[in-house]
User: Fold these one by one.
Assistant:
Number 1:
Amino acid sequence: QVVLVSGHLDSWDVGQGAMDDGGGAFISWEALSLIKDLGLRPKRTLRLVLWTGEEQGGVGAKQYYQLHKENISNFDIVMESDEGTFKPSGLGFSGSAEARDIVKEIMTLLQPINVTDVYDTADGTDIADWMRGGVPGASLHDDINKYFWFHHSQGDTMTVQDPNQMNLCAAVWTVVSYVIADMEDMLPR
């Protein structure tokens, strides 16, 4: 059984892609690194995917889906961060009402950093096929007021990244992915 965390490498035009979507790739990598560094071993596999070709029609994600869809029932949740890594506010979630209640309970663990909201739907080109197939999905919600200042521009460099905000995003990704991966049962479909 698999809990999938992801971001994509998006620097295809004028920018470096540091915020879009290098930040999402980084926090996904960091989540697994933190879990490993803490010596935690969840009941399910945590899998990191750094997608390619999102801007070219999601070809990397479509290929991955084609290769793994026969095991769709073993995917517990698919998570994608693709709106930068600014100050997080919570998660977008798509799935059953029962699964949503579980995710809301998990998000209460993040009260100390004031990131507890669960929004109505998850977004993500790279996880869309999985969600259409019935797998619960989550996407990071953060303060996107400045997102389009940098999105696909020369300004999308590492100087845009605020290390403190990225750490908060990584904390959200780490807590949610680990707790879901370590629950007794998979999220209800």
Number 2:
Amino acid sequence: PHDMCTCDRNWQGSDCSLRTCPFGKAHVDTPKGDLDFSLAVGDSNDVVITGSTVYPYGTTEGYPLMADTAGNVLDNTGHDYMECSNKGLCDRGSGQCECLPGYDGAACQRASCPSNANSHTPGSGTEGSNTNFKVYNGKSAFLGAGRLSITQTNQCSGHGTCMTIEQLSYLDYNNVYDLWDKDMTM
């Protein structure tokens, strides 16, 4: 108890020198495997590795432990919160996600819109990267609904508008799209 570091928030490693990157809903996730070396992968009810920096409330070896609003545990769930949304690699030195091609955002949490920009990896946080996106802010889609519009240069070659699936749905006779990827699929 006297020869170990207890890391501050967003720091990890045996000497607390490594940064933790932002988390987002995973585009794709899988069971994490045998984390406690018991030679078996537990199900969604078996919480292991509690109190770690990355999983302070614990994690499961199987698919994420999820429940509906009534408290019923759901089997074979997906899209749990993962570092860099499971679509990027964490730079432990800077604490920034290096997104895979086709994804952007601080946590690689959304699909990128096509761009003719010669920039760094989208969402990398480096100068010149496409970390923001241009959303539709016309007269009908989410006017006054508190949605933010962030202008992104060179999206859609400067001749189009990048929209989320939620916004596209709304523009189609005010349909409502409220699934896990409503703000992620562009």
Number 3:
Amino acid sequence: GPCTECSCSSGKEPDKDPSHTKKKENGDRLCVPKIFFGTRTHKQITQISRELKRTAYSCVPMTILSSRDYTCIHPVVSNSSNRNEMCVELLEGKHGKSCSYYHGVHKLSEHHALQPAGLYQAWDIEDLVSLGRRLRACPYFAARELMVGADIVFCPYNYLLDPQIRDSMDINLKDQVVILDEAHNIEDCARESVSYGVTESQLRAAREELDFMVNNNIRQKHHEPLRAVCCSLI
């Protein structure tokens, strides 16, 4: 039978309620789950959104979560190797500067082209970035805004597996539908999400700082074990 729960069935605008709920006749809240579709790479998201365009669900409210590497359009930040840090500094107004693109987020997220009956219907990252450049509005934060009313959310695996990324992106998977494309790659992704790499020079620098702390009797009982770990790794 026809779909009755998601917004594509009625042709109406998606529910803007952050909890994405609808009321049942008896007054209880009925949770309508989102579909989180995880892929191994950003490139695969483009392929999947292209396939979505060919289905009867091409007008379903959607969004694509991706890193600033793919969606930042700020002329300085986008060409930096520290995009995340520079973006945060601009948003916090450090050094008296701010990001004009961030202030235009609503212009982009509410644009008719990204709405269910819009020009693009199912769209990909390139469509979002292109529209963001035209409107001088941030695609990165617009994609996050669109998640509130989206029925389907595309993102790389680590957005779903890494708890820190989930928290930073406000992703709550409780009672939602999660689809993992090519799930045999999950082990590697899960391993990476709880791994961290350090260089020998970083270890030596850390040891020198810890030496200073211990020699100056600064919280010795905490710093001595850390120094021992650095020494053993070196």
Number 4:
Amino acid sequence: RLEEFLKKEVDLELSTLPDFEERIIDFSEVEQLMNSINTISAPCAPVINPQAPNAATGSSLRVCWGLFSDDTVECYQLCYKPVSNERHSDEQAECTLKVKETYCTITDLLPNTQYEFWVSALNASGISPPSEKAVYVTAPSPPTIKSKKIRSCENAALVCWESRDINPVDSYTVEL
């Protein structure tokens, strides 16, 4: 049946009302309305702050950044990964967090380890370029005192300890 129908020659004649054919559509009001709508552009790249003193523990880091423009921002996307001296450092897993504030405390990190951080701003129009990358370092683990090697006399004491950190520690503070 379909084949027979397609073989037939169909002559369609459309009729329109004369007033429709002569009608002129004025889009000036629509154009004015569209021009009056303020569009929001994607935000500029945030600026990540260098690591602040006392912003680290052995397992956490507090990262701060700023946005130096009047851009509208709904949230931030904070990315980080451990810094590696190996050639395949780009293959290490990145972690990404969505954050409402301009700071974030990241937990469950390794002690005495460098982490690379960068942040982007997001709004309804899109995502900003990422900030420059910043390197933060977690605090080292506390050393283990070798209690069997402690020696003392009236005017002196010898205390020995060992570090559990893989990376070298710059210095130790001994408190009495």
